[in-house]
């Protein structure tokens, strides 16, 4: 084993990146995502994704509040990452002020949110979900933002979820986030738990995309 491999085996961000590479590619290549990215789905499909995000991020951010009271966990809580208010602004724009009574939370979303709620009591599991969601939003999420704006005629409104107004430069922030993750000083067992949970996170996300995709199969343009 090389020195780099030995070091990476104890670095959380490197373990998470390596351990979820295949699952990440699977999630990104689901039919719902590819059709959303090429504009062949209606705007309502994007609005439905935003609606599911509302439940998911409320659960994630409630889990984060649990970790805020933990000495180690508090170091990876960044208020700049909070997404729930932005999601609610997007839903008001996309659906209307009465969006709360009009959206439907899908079964896959409920399963995902329940898992996130459980993760609030475990630093490794919370770190895995936060890494998966927030760094994804700051990276590939920015591509999604541009494509959604292009295909669905959205300006700044409707994509506030992907707009981190308190993070003007994403790369330095992502670097700091990874450094905080790596500084959690997780045990070997906790590292394994985090990687396993990150894989579950991608599986849950892929299941959600699958369920969304089935809702719009008959509306796909050929």
Written account of the structure:
It is built from twelve helices and no strands. It is mainly alpha-helical and 222 residues long. The chain has a single domain, classed as Heme oxygenase-like (Heme Oxygenase, Chain A), CATH 1.20.910.
What is shown here, in short?
The protein has helices at 3-8, 12-19, 21-28, 31-37, 43-67, 84-94, 99-102, 107-119, 123-138, 140-152, 170-182, 188-215. It has 222 residues and is an all-alpha fold. Helix 2 packs parallel to helix 12, helix 5 packs antiparallel against helix 9 and helix 9 crosses helix 12.
Topology:
Blueprint: H1 3-8, H2 12-19, H3 21-28, H4 31-37, H5 43-67, H6 84-94, H7 99-102, H8 107-119, H9 123-138, H10 140-152, H11 170-182, H12 188-215
* SS elements, strand count: 0
Distance between the termini: 50 Å
Q: Which structural class best describes the helix and strand composition?
A: mainly alpha
Proper CATH architecture = Up-down Bundle
Task: Enter the CATH topology name.
Answer: Heme Oxygenase, Chain A
| Average predicted local confidence, pLDDT | 92
Relative strand content: under 5%
Largest sheet: number of strands, sense, barrel closure: none
User: Which series of helices and strands comes N to C?
Assistant: HHHHHHHHHHHH
**Unreliable stretches covering 5 or more consecutive residues:** 1-7
- What is the count of DSSP helices, taking H or I runs of 4+ residues? 12
- Radius of gyration, rounded? 17 Å
What general form does the structure show? globular
Give the CATH superfamily.
Heme oxygenase-like
Oligomer: single chain
What is the total domain count? 1
């Amino acid at each position: 084993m090389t020195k780099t491999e030995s070091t990476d085996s104890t670095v959380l961000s490197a373990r998470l990146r390596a351990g979820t590479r295949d699952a990440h590619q699977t999630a990104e290549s689901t039919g719902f995502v590819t059709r959303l990215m090429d504009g062949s789905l209606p705007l309502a499909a994007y609005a439905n994704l935003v609606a599911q995000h509302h439940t998911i991020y409320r659960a994630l951010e409630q889990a984060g509040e649990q970790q805020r009271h933990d000495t180690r966990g508090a170091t990876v809580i960044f208020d700049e990452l909070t997404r729930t208010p932005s999601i609610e602004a997007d839903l008001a724009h996309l659906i209307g002020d009465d969006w709360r009574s009009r959206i439907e939370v899908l079964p896959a979303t409920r399963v995902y949110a329940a898992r996130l709620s459980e993760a609030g009591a475990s630093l490794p599991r919370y770190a895995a979900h936060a890494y998966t969601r927030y760094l994804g939003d700051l990276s590939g999420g920015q591509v999604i933002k541009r494509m959604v704006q292009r295909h669905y005629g959205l300006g700044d409104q409707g994509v506030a979820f992907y707009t981190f107004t308190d993070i003007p430069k994403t790369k330095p922030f992502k670097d700091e986030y990874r450094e905080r993750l790596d500084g959690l000083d997780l045990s070997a067992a906790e590292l394994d738990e985090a990687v396993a949970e990150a894989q579950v996170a991608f599986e849950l996300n892929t299941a959600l995309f699958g369920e969304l995709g089935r809702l719009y199969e008959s509306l796909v343009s050929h």
